[in-house]
Amino acid sequence: MLVLVYGGSGSGKSEIAEDYCLNLRKDSSHKMIYLATMEPFGKEAEERIKRHRDLRKNKGFVTIEKTCDINEIEVKKDDIILLECMSNLVANEFFTKNLNNEEVVKKISLDIKNLSDRVENLIIVSNDIFSSGEEYGKETYEYMKALGEINKDIAKKADVVFEAVVGIPVIKKSIR
Are 32 and 58 in contact (CB under 8 A)? Predict the structure, then answer.
């Protein structure tokens, strides 16, 4: 099953995704992998990472930190993967590898497909960064465009899509 949970900053999307993973887990033989994509640039990022670690500390996740090339992780078919978060992954691939918009969309879409094919359950968290109404420079606009294309592709292929609104999961799509 492919699940997308998206929402704005502080919307509760991470907790919704974590709870979804816990509900999917049938027993302890199903390993829950928290695939962390945030590059710890600076004190604010380090504090955010620590806060997320603390929040999921007793939930049974095994954390794998992989800021790029997510398809390279070792998984088993019955693993449950929570990818947190797509906006960080896109930024990492876009800015650290100097890929253009088309290359990022193609690479990440392929990585998601391959990872999804290798596990029964992949839950992806992504940010809604498109409603600020602000003007951005060309490079940021290209990043946002790539993230938007990837989010649309995931949503199209997903079995379930949630929007996190003030901590409430609003179902936007459900194929069951």
Answer: no
Q: Tell the residue number behind the tokens 């940021």, with chain if given.
A: 140
Is residue 43 over pLDDT 70?
A: yes
Q: What is the CA radius of gyration of the chain?
A: 15
**Phi, psi for residue 41 in degrees, rounded to 5:** -90, 105
- Tokens 């994509």 correspond to 37
58-89 burial, b for 16+ CB within 10 Å, e for fewer?
eeebebeebbbebbeeebeeebbbbbbbbbbb
Cβ contact 85:125 at 8 Å: yes
pLDDT digits (tens, 9 = 90+) for 124-176: 999 998 766 677 788 888 999 999 999 999 999 999 999 999 999 999 999 86
- Per-residue CA distances from 97 to 43, 58, 94, 100, 102 (Å): 23, 34, 6, 9, 13
Token pair belonging to 113: 């497909």
